[in-house]
Design brief:
single chain; Porin; 3 helices; 19 strands
Length: about 325
């Protein structure tokens, strides 16, 4: 296990140093961009530095190995008020299975503005038809603690994007590991790979067109290019700077390597009072060029209604520069 910890740490340092030197951007070269929208106000409030953090259902998105810490049936629903009136909804459930591990299921749905006008070259003001667009991902997760200090997790998911009469489908796998060192208030090292899967190609009635050749009408299909999914490799560290009976202060740092952009670093912290009230702050996309993202803040409330039911509310605010602000909300239950 010590070898695993050293390996993760070396990779982390390599990514942080490479963040300075990487200058080539591949922005716009992958499909299913909604998969890059962070999930869960707790993670967002901490600057999206969540790879080495556990005990939250949004770990399904950041690092499925974090699910292994769950010791009760949990449910979560979150809502993201994204830019341009786009909404992203996320729902997930998980349950521990004795002798096996923790299993989970989730769905992410992104809805854009409904009822947009169909415009063509011949009818630039609109044809009278309306269209909408949306994206979704559904999947299953599994996590298991192989030892008291080492956990591994997997997520398999189905991905679909649609705009008017076109759609694209893909399949992907997420893999994550999390290792705890019994030093520095349980220092945690983690790594995850997200969206490793098939390419996506748009298909449907919209790419069919009729051509006239020698007085004959011929149906032809426009050849569409296939695009990779937004593969992301994350390495992260986290630990408690303060850990007493009533107070906890946790910091987290992530280094991210995407396949369609330059590397960057996220960092954040969470203060907890009696594990009831939470205050969070963070900074996203450090060292990334031409980014609008930056500071984020969050709050949370975790309250036990009865012995067998705990309710959780979380909120996060993220500054998005010229694209204004983004708000995240979530509601969770632990049985």
């Amino acid at each position: 296990m010590k070898k695993i910890a050293v390996l993760i740490l070396i990779i982390s340092l390599a990514f942080i140093s490479n963040a300075y030197s990487q200058s080539l951007s591949k922005a716009g070269t992958s499909a299913a961009q909604f998969l890059k929208i962070g999930i869960g106000p707790r993670a967002i409030g901490m600057g999206s530095a969540f790879t080495a953090t556990e005990s939250d259902l949004s770990s399904i998105y950041w690092n499925p190995a974090g699910l292994a810490a769950g010791n009760s049936v949990s449910a979560m629903f979150s809502r993201t008020e994204w830019i341009a009136d786009i909404g992203v909804d996320f729902a997930a459930v998980s349950a521990p299975v004795e002798g096996l591990g923790t299993i989970g299921a989730f769905a992410t749905i992104m809805n854009s503005i409904d009822g947009m006008l169909v415009r063509t070259v011949d009818n630039p003001e609109g044809t009278g038809e309306l269209f909408d667009a949306g994206s979704m991902a559904i999947g299953l997760s599994f996590a298991r603690s192989l030892t008291d200090n080492f956990a591994i997790g997997f997520t398999a998911k189905y991905i679909r994007e649609q705009i008017w009469k076109e759609s694209a489908v893909g399949f992907a796998l997420d893999v994550g590991v999390l290792y705890k060192l019994q030093i520095l208030n349980e220092f945690r090292l983690a790594a995850s790979i997200s969206n490793f899967g098939t390419k996506m190609t748009m298909d449907g009635r919209d790419i069919l067109e009729i051509k006239r050749v020698n007085e004959n009408l011929i149906n032809q299909k426009i050849e569409m290019e296939s695009w990779e999914l937004p593969l992301m490799f994350r390495v992260g560290v986290a630990a408690d700077l303060i850990s007493t009976n009533s107070s906890r202060l946790t910091y987290a740092i992530d280094a991210i390597h995407p396949n369609d952009h330059t590397e960057y670093v996220n960092m954040g912290a969470e203060y907890s009072w009696n594990e009831i009230i939470f205050l969070r702050a963070g900074y996203k996309s450090l060292f990334e060029k031409d980014t609008e993202e930056g500071v984020s803040f969050g709050v949370g409330l975790n309250y036990r209604l009865v012995d067998a039911l705990k309710v959780r509310f979380d909120y996060a605010y993220q500054d998005f520069g010229r694209l204004e602000n983004i708000h995240y909300f979530s509601f969770g239950l632990n049985f």
